[in-house]
Write a structure and sequence with these properties.
It contains 5 helices and no strands. By secondary structure, it is mainly alpha-helical. The protein is globular.
Length: 85
């Protein structure tokens, strides 16, 4: 799969159907997907395999991912969402 195809697939997968997650992930994808390095795309891909309930818990700060790369991405998405309010 080409990098362009991967970006398009990730953009689509950022639409979760859970409003709270969509409000975080869709804007992040629109702004940041074009700029993410290949290794960051892989981390986002892993993040999007996580169950919605776990994602919501991470984004609300109730829990923290045990994977440091995922924790960093969650923090980045949360930070960007606060900056855009």
């Amino acid at each position: 799969m080409s990098e362009q195809e991967q970006r398009a697939r990730l953009r689509w997968r950022c639409r979760r159907g859970l409003r709270e997650l969509d409000l975080l992930l869709a804007p992040f994808a629109e702004r940041q997907l074009p700029r993410l390095a290949p290794d960051e795309l892989d981390v986002l891909d892993r993040l999007l395999t996580v169950a919605d309930q776990d994602l919501q818990s991470w984004f609300l700060g109730r829990e923290r991912p045990s994977d440091d790369a995922l924790a960093e991405l969650v923090s980045r998405i949360r930070h960007e969402a606060r900056a855009c309010e």
